[in-house]
Design goal:
Elements: H1 13-23, E1 32-37, E2 41-46, E3 50-55, H2 63-72, E4 83-87, E5 97-101, H3 116-132, H4 156-168, H5 177-188, E6 198-200, E7 209-212, E8 215-219, E9 226-228, H6 242-252, H7 256-277, H8 282-300
Antiparallel strand pairs: 1-2, 2-3, 3-5, 4-5, 6-9, 7-8
Helix pairs in contact: 3-6, 4-5, 4-7, 5-7, 7-8
């Protein structure tokens, strides 16, 4: 996978072996193989039971997962990562890293999900349970603040710049940008969200979900775990088929105002990704274009655009901008 970010740290199996030999020697002899990469992390399968997860940039940190996942897991019905070892930065790899237990499963798609209505309900259950988990003394000031837990107007300038970046791609994008701007303006004109802050995953896109026996089995990548308002938490459901979106919204009893704000968040996050990853990660850019088409279809009260791909793309992680 080519570098995605200017300050990216390259990794190789030899480098991972070196880190394991000095910091986790009891597992250093296990078979090691590349297991994929997202926008923020690179993974290596370690034996049959473990996965080594390394941030792509020096700013990446597993601190949120290490600190909070063991405390949150008992409150959740679905499996989440289980960090087992905490790797320290070195001269050759200047970032913290982890070894976690491997979780079997497949990415959600038409070949893995039996019932999209049930899947949407399962995802809503996870969101409700996570948001309802006790704070246990956590505060946003303790490294648990992220822009997606704030107000939509807080990213207005970035979203509008991203839409301009999408427009610069011209006919290659093949999207109705005028209609997208109207959807954005409608969401932005709504009153600010209110309510107590709660736990947020931050990036529930399909690449961070695992399916087993046709149902949601696990939720991965809590690198953006935070406390905040929930509107942006709902936005990745626009990556899913309309049956899943409908079931998700009904299960959480989201009113029209909340849904419209969530649709605005879905648009903004996808628009940020398209120009940023257009050249370096075209699969993720295409996934984001599909989300924008789904946003337009939802706003118009129609089904998904028939040009949208049927499967999610394999990139995992969060939007860098």
């Amino acid at each position: 996978m080519p570098p995605l970010h200017p300050n990216e740290i390259p990794t190789t199996p030899a480098l991972v072996r070196e880190l394991l030999a000095t910091q986790v020697p009891e597992w250093a002899g296990l078979p090691l193989r590349y297991a994929g990469a997202g926008t923020d992390n690179t993974m290596y399968r370690l034996g049959d039971e473990y996965v080594v997860r390394l941030p792509r940039t020096p700013e990446g940190s597993p601190a949120r997962e290490l600190t909070w996942l063991p405390r949150l897991a008992p409150h959740l019905s679905h499996r989440v990562p289980e960090p087992l070892r905490h790797g320290a930065p070195t001269d050759r790899f200047p970032a913290e890293w982890t070894v976690s237990r491997w979780i079997e499963g497949e990415e959600p798609g038409p070949g893995t999900v039996r019932d999209w209505t049930a899947f949407g309900t399962d995802l809503a259950t996870f969101v409700r349970e996570l948001r309802g988990a006790p704070l246990m003394g956590a505060r946003r000031a303790d490294g648990l603040s992220w822009y997606r837990g704030g107000q939509l107007r807080g990213i207005a300038a970035q979203a509008e710049a991203a839409l301009a970046g999408c427009a610069a791609l011209g006919d290659a994008l093949d999207l109705d940008l005028t209609a997208l701007r109207e959807v954005w303006k409608t969401a932005l004109a709504l009153p600010d969200a209110e309510g107590p802050e709660g736990w947020l995953h931050g990036d529930l896109r399909p690449a961070n979900l695992l399916v087993e026996d046709g149902r949601l089995h696990a939720v991965l990548d809590f690198g953006t775990l935070s406390l905040g308002l929930p509107d942006a938490e709902h936005s990745p459901v626009f990556d899913l088929p309309p049956e899943a979106r409908t079931a998700y919204r009904a299960a959480l009893a989201l009113d029209d105002t909340t849904w419209t704000r969530a649709r605005g968040w879905a648009l903004a996050v996808a628009a940020l990704a398209v120009p940023y990853y257009w050249q370096t990660l075209p699969d993720f850019a295409a996934e984001s274009v599909t989300r924008l088409r789904n946003v337009l279809a939802d706003a118009a009260g129609t089904g998904p655009d028939d040009r949208a791909p049927d499967t999610a793309h394999p990139a995992a992680g969060t939007v860098a901008p």
